[in-house]
Amino acid sequence: MSKKVLLTSFSTWLPHQKSNSSDDLLHEVTKDDSFPASLTTLRQLPVDIHQASNLVIERINQLNPHLIISCGMAERREILTVESQARRENHLIETWVKLERLTAGLKMTNISHDAGKFVCEGLYYSLLKHLRDRRIQTPCIFVHVPLLSEQNLPDIKADFSEIINRLLIFES
Predict the structure, then answer these.
(1) Which Gene3D superfamilies did the record assign (predicted)?
(2) Which spans in the chain are helix H?
(3) Of 95, 76, 72, 90, which is closest to residue 145 (Cα–Cα)?
(4) pTM of the shown model
(5) Burial of 24 (0-12, 13-18, 19+ CB in 10 A)
């Protein structure tokens, strides 16, 4: 049986945004059928913590994925950033994925300790809490995606694909 990967992205939230780079990246990555897993996407989530969290948790409960990667756009960042933690008020939850190992040697990826205090962090916190509270050991990370261009897309896509493949291997 093929492993199941759940990938999520957001819709836009500001008038100047023609698209959300997280959604654009998922579109590009899912065109590739060489992954040793079944990729399921939940794209263009509403930019609302409660609605987005409910939709993703519902899909997690239906799909029972082996891996969860949620993505959001970070217009001011220039590379992929994998978030180490999420906060809600005075509560902090860290991912249990070993991010140093995951990102080692990747050209366009760093670890971030600031998920942004917006809907991205709210969703990430909700997902980590849901998994922790139900003692579900599914690896879950949040990746911020910079604006994509013809110049950076090949390297960003390659790193993101490698993240998926490494998680499938590391977390087996």
Answers:
(1) Peptidase C15, pyroglutamyl peptidase I-like
(2) 21-29, 49-63, 99-103, 119-133, 153-170
(3) 72
(4) 0.95
(5) buried
- Structural tokens at position 59: 């899909």
Q: What is the DSSP string of 53-98?
A: HHHHHHHHHHH--SEEEEEEE-TT-SSEEEE-EEEETTEEEE--S-
Q: Which of 144, 155, 140 is nearest to 67 (CA)?
A: 140
pLDDT tens-digit readout, 22-70: 999 999 999 887 777 899 999 999 999 999 999 999 999 999 999 999 9
SS3 49: helix
Rounded-to-integer distance, Cα 89 and Cα 7, Å: 26
> Exposure pattern of 68-98 as b/e (b: 16+ CB <10 Å)?
bbbbbbbeebebbbbbbbbeeeeeebebebe
pLDDT in tens, 67-125: 999 999 999 999 999 999 999 999 999 999 999 999 999 999 999 999 988 899 999 99
* Superfamily of 3-170 according to CATH: Peptidase C15, pyroglutamyl peptidase I-like (3.40.630.20)
Show the tokens assigned to 46.
């509403």
- The 3-state DSSP class for residue 29 equals helix
